[in-house]
Design a protein that fits this description.
This protein is mainly beta and 191 residues long. The chain has no helices and 17 strands. Strands 1, 12, 13, 14, 15, 16 and 17 form a 7-stranded antiparallel beta sheet that branches. Strands 2-3-4-11-6-9 form a 6-stranded antiparallel beta sheet, with no helix packed on it. The chain is globular, with a radius of gyration of 16 Å. The protein starts with a strand and ends with a strand. The relative contact order is 0.21.
Protein backbone atom coordinates (compact mmCIF):
# COMPACT_ATOMS: atom_id res chain seq x y z
CA UNK A 1 0.00 0.00 0.00
CA UNK A 2 1.46 3.35 -1.07
CA UNK A 3 1.42 6.19 1.47
CA UNK A 4 2.02 9.92 1.03
CA UNK A 5 3.24 11.48 4.28
CA UNK A 6 2.87 15.25 4.24
CA UNK A 7 5.53 17.00 6.29
CA UNK A 8 3.22 19.94 7.06
CA UNK A 9 0.89 17.59 8.98
CA UNK A 10 3.63 16.30 11.34
CA UNK A 11 4.86 17.68 14.67
CA UNK A 12 8.52 17.90 15.72
CA UNK A 13 9.71 16.41 19.00
CA UNK A 14 12.47 18.18 20.99
CA UNK A 15 15.57 16.15 21.81
CA UNK A 16 16.05 15.19 25.44
CA UNK A 17 19.34 17.15 25.54
CA UNK A 18 17.74 20.24 23.93
CA UNK A 19 20.23 20.24 21.03
CA UNK A 20 17.63 19.93 18.29
CA UNK A 21 14.28 18.56 17.20
CA UNK A 22 13.23 15.49 15.21
CA UNK A 23 10.18 15.05 13.02
CA UNK A 24 9.43 11.37 12.46
CA UNK A 25 8.29 10.83 8.88
CA UNK A 26 7.65 7.07 8.95
CA UNK A 27 8.38 3.96 11.00
CA UNK A 28 7.70 0.27 10.50
CA UNK A 29 6.02 -1.81 11.73
CA UNK A 30 3.02 0.38 12.62
CA UNK A 31 2.88 1.04 16.35
CA UNK A 32 6.58 0.28 16.89
CA UNK A 33 8.63 2.36 19.30
CA UNK A 34 12.26 3.49 19.30
CA UNK A 35 13.38 0.15 20.78
CA UNK A 36 11.65 -2.21 18.35
CA UNK A 37 11.25 -0.62 14.90
CA UNK A 38 12.45 -2.42 11.76
CA UNK A 39 13.08 0.88 9.96
CA UNK A 40 12.59 4.56 10.75
CA UNK A 41 12.90 7.76 8.71
CA UNK A 42 13.01 11.26 10.17
CA UNK A 43 14.06 14.84 9.54
CA UNK A 44 16.10 16.39 12.35
CA UNK A 45 17.66 19.75 13.05
CA UNK A 46 20.95 19.94 14.91
CA UNK A 47 20.92 23.35 16.60
CA UNK A 48 23.57 22.94 19.33
CA UNK A 49 26.67 20.93 20.06
CA UNK A 50 26.04 17.65 21.86
CA UNK A 51 25.71 13.86 21.73
CA UNK A 52 23.39 11.81 19.53
CA UNK A 53 21.05 9.21 20.95
CA UNK A 54 22.39 5.69 20.54
CA UNK A 55 20.47 2.92 18.75
CA UNK A 56 22.23 -0.43 19.37
CA UNK A 57 21.80 -2.95 16.55
CA UNK A 58 20.75 -0.26 14.06
CA UNK A 59 22.53 1.08 10.95
CA UNK A 60 22.17 4.85 10.41
CA UNK A 61 22.60 7.19 7.48
CA UNK A 62 22.39 10.98 7.73
CA UNK A 63 22.10 13.21 4.68
CA UNK A 64 22.35 16.97 5.19
CA UNK A 65 19.43 18.82 3.61
CA UNK A 66 20.20 22.40 4.73
CA UNK A 67 22.71 24.34 6.81
CA UNK A 68 26.40 25.22 6.97
CA UNK A 69 27.57 21.85 8.20
CA UNK A 70 28.33 19.90 11.32
CA UNK A 71 31.42 18.12 12.63
CA UNK A 72 30.57 14.62 13.80
CA UNK A 73 32.88 12.66 16.05
CA UNK A 74 31.84 9.06 15.37
CA UNK A 75 33.79 6.82 17.72
CA UNK A 76 37.44 7.69 16.99
CA UNK A 77 36.70 9.24 13.57
CA UNK A 78 35.91 12.84 12.69
CA UNK A 79 33.55 13.46 9.79
CA UNK A 80 32.40 16.83 8.46
CA UNK A 81 28.87 16.75 7.12
CA UNK A 82 28.69 19.66 4.65
CA UNK A 83 27.01 20.69 1.39
CA UNK A 84 30.02 19.18 -0.46
CA UNK A 85 29.98 15.93 1.56
CA UNK A 86 26.37 15.64 2.74
CA UNK A 87 26.15 11.90 3.59
CA UNK A 88 27.54 9.83 6.48
CA UNK A 89 26.85 6.24 7.54
CA UNK A 90 27.54 4.75 10.99
CA UNK A 91 26.40 2.13 13.46
CA UNK A 92 23.66 3.20 15.86
CA UNK A 93 25.64 2.02 18.89
CA UNK A 94 28.63 4.23 17.99
CA UNK A 95 29.02 7.22 20.30
CA UNK A 96 28.44 10.36 18.18
CA UNK A 97 29.05 13.95 19.21
CA UNK A 98 28.02 16.88 16.99
CA UNK A 99 29.67 20.30 16.77
CA UNK A 100 27.60 22.77 14.72
CA UNK A 101 29.50 24.98 12.23
CA UNK A 102 27.46 28.21 12.17
CA UNK A 103 23.70 27.88 11.73
CA UNK A 104 21.77 24.72 12.57
CA UNK A 105 21.60 21.90 10.05
CA UNK A 106 18.61 19.94 8.84
CA UNK A 107 19.33 16.26 8.23
CA UNK A 108 17.41 13.37 6.68
CA UNK A 109 17.89 10.22 8.80
CA UNK A 110 17.36 6.59 7.84
CA UNK A 111 17.68 3.86 10.49
CA UNK A 112 17.33 0.12 9.84
CA UNK A 113 17.56 -2.68 12.38
CA UNK A 114 20.31 -5.17 11.53
CA UNK A 115 18.90 -8.62 10.81
CA UNK A 116 15.53 -7.14 9.74
CA UNK A 117 16.36 -4.57 7.04
CA UNK A 118 19.22 -2.79 5.33
CA UNK A 119 18.99 0.42 3.33
CA UNK A 120 20.59 2.33 0.50
CA UNK A 121 20.11 6.04 -0.27
CA UNK A 122 20.57 7.47 -3.75
CA UNK A 123 20.39 11.27 -4.15
CA UNK A 124 18.77 12.09 -7.50
CA UNK A 125 18.46 15.44 -9.29
CA UNK A 126 15.23 15.63 -11.28
CA UNK A 127 14.76 18.15 -14.07
CA UNK A 128 11.93 17.04 -16.34
CA UNK A 129 10.67 13.47 -16.32
CA UNK A 130 12.81 10.49 -15.21
CA UNK A 131 12.04 6.87 -14.32
CA UNK A 132 12.25 6.06 -10.62
CA UNK A 133 15.04 3.56 -9.97
CA UNK A 134 13.71 0.84 -7.63
CA UNK A 135 15.77 -1.97 -6.17
CA UNK A 136 13.46 -3.25 -3.42
CA UNK A 137 9.83 -3.99 -2.58
CA UNK A 138 9.71 -0.89 -0.36
CA UNK A 139 11.06 2.37 -1.78
CA UNK A 140 10.91 5.78 -0.11
CA UNK A 141 10.91 9.02 -2.10
CA UNK A 142 11.83 12.14 -0.10
CA UNK A 143 11.67 15.60 -1.69
CA UNK A 144 14.76 17.25 -0.18
CA UNK A 145 14.81 20.37 -2.35
CA UNK A 146 12.46 21.90 -4.89
CA UNK A 147 8.94 23.23 -4.73
CA UNK A 148 7.10 20.21 -6.06
CA UNK A 149 7.47 16.70 -7.42
CA UNK A 150 4.96 14.55 -9.27
CA UNK A 151 5.28 10.77 -8.86
CA UNK A 152 3.16 8.72 -11.24
CA UNK A 153 2.48 5.16 -12.34
CA UNK A 154 0.03 3.78 -14.90
CA UNK A 155 -2.66 3.84 -12.15
CA UNK A 156 -1.78 6.71 -9.81
CA UNK A 157 -0.37 10.25 -9.70
CA UNK A 158 0.82 11.79 -6.41
CA UNK A 159 2.05 15.32 -5.71
CA UNK A 160 4.78 16.08 -3.16
CA UNK A 161 6.00 19.40 -1.80
CA UNK A 162 9.32 19.98 -0.04
CA UNK A 163 10.05 17.49 2.81
CA UNK A 164 7.12 15.20 1.94
CA UNK A 165 7.80 11.45 1.93
CA UNK A 166 6.25 8.83 -0.30
CA UNK A 167 6.33 5.15 0.74
CA UNK A 168 5.97 2.87 -2.30
CA UNK A 169 5.34 -0.84 -1.88
CA UNK A 170 4.96 -3.38 -4.67
CA UNK A 171 6.44 -3.70 -8.11
CA UNK A 172 4.92 -0.86 -10.13
CA UNK A 173 6.97 1.31 -12.48
CA UNK A 174 6.99 4.96 -11.42
CA UNK A 175 8.08 8.24 -13.03
CA UNK A 176 9.36 11.33 -11.24
CA UNK A 177 8.58 14.74 -12.72
CA UNK A 178 9.68 18.23 -11.66
CA UNK A 179 11.04 21.44 -13.13
CA UNK A 180 13.95 21.15 -10.65
CA UNK A 181 14.17 18.95 -7.56
CA UNK A 182 16.60 16.99 -5.40
CA UNK A 183 15.13 13.69 -4.30
CA UNK A 184 16.48 11.03 -1.95
CA UNK A 185 15.45 7.54 -3.10
CA UNK A 186 15.73 5.03 -0.26
CA UNK A 187 15.58 1.32 -0.92
CA UNK A 188 14.58 -0.74 2.15
CA UNK A 189 15.70 -4.33 1.69
CA UNK A 190 14.35 -7.04 4.00
CA UNK A 191 17.11 -9.29 5.40
Amino acid sequence: MNRLIQYASLRPTPWKNGGGVTTELAMSPPGAGLDNFDWRVSLASIAEDGPFSQFPGVDRTLVMVAGDGVLLEVGDERVVLSPGEPLVEFAGEDPVHATVNGQSTLDFNVLTRRGSYRHRIVPLVVGGSVPLPRRSDTTLVFLADGESLSVSSARERLALVRYDLLVLEGEQDWTLESAQATVFVVDLIAS
